[in-house]
Amino acid sequence: MKKILLTVVVAFLSIGFAYAYDDVPITVDQLPQKAQQFLKSYFPQVGVSFAKKESDIIGNEYDVVLTDGSKMEFTSKGEWKSVECKGGAVPADIAPKQITQYVAKNYPDTKILKIDRDNREYEVYLSNRLELTFNKDFKLVDIDD
After folding, report:
1. Amino acid 93: pLDDT
2. How far apart are CA 110 and CA 25, in angstroms?
3. Please, what's the b/e burial string for 117-135 (b: 16 or more CB within 10 A of its CB; e: otherwise)?
4. Backbone angles phi, psi at 133, to 5 degrees
5. Is the four-CA dihedral 96, 125, 91, 111 of positive or negative sign?
6. Phi, psi (5° rounding) for residue 129?
7. In angstroms, rounded to a whole number, what is the distance separating the alpha carbons of residues 50 and 110?
8. Which region among 15-24, 49-58, 121-130 has the lowest average model confidence (pLDDT)?
């Protein structure tokens, strides 16, 4: 009986994990509304090359690649997690004002090429190859080159 129960549990876990890590191509109108508005606001002249929904045990996330090579990641609610612009700067209004002011003051000849955020921090990648890390209070906590 224990072997049968163990076999059933393993089978269900295998099916669950196979389903849990499912990446599905989607259209722009299948993105959360907030992500759609983000694209319209910040990248109105750039088309979407590819979008996909990533499902895992925690929930869904969305990846978008634009026709100019820029990439974005969004949460299940459509909030941006990562924005990387190929061949140009991340639009100034995406990064928090405190971060853009810090970069403008301390690195005036650089552009923000990529910005990532999570629950604890922001990581900013500059055109001079520096990586700045800010905490949630927008205090600089690390610099990497």
Report:
1. 94
2. 35
3. beeeebbbbbeeeeebbbe
4. -120, 130
5. positive
6. 75, 10
7. 29
8. 15-24
Question: With bands split at pLDDT 50, 70 and 90, how would you rate the model's confidence at 38?
Answer: very high
The amino acid occupying position 76 is S
> What's the average model confidence in pLDDT over 43-72?
94
Query: d(Cα 22, Cα 54) in Å, to the nearest integer?
Result: 6
User: Three-class SS string for the chain?
Assistant: CHHHHHHHHHHHHHHHHHHHCEEEECCHHHCCHHHHHHHHHHCCCCCEEEEEEEECCCCEEEEEEECCCCEEEECCCCCEEEEECCCCCCCCCCCCHHHHHHHHHHCCCCCEEEEEECCCEEEEEECCCCEEEEECCCCEEEEEC
Q: How many whole angstroms from its chain centre is CA 96?
A: 15
Of the candidates 43, 42, 64, which has an alpha carbon nearest to the alpha carbon of residue 54? 64
What is the pTM (predicted TM-score) of this model?
A: 0.81
pLDDT, residue 6, reads 41
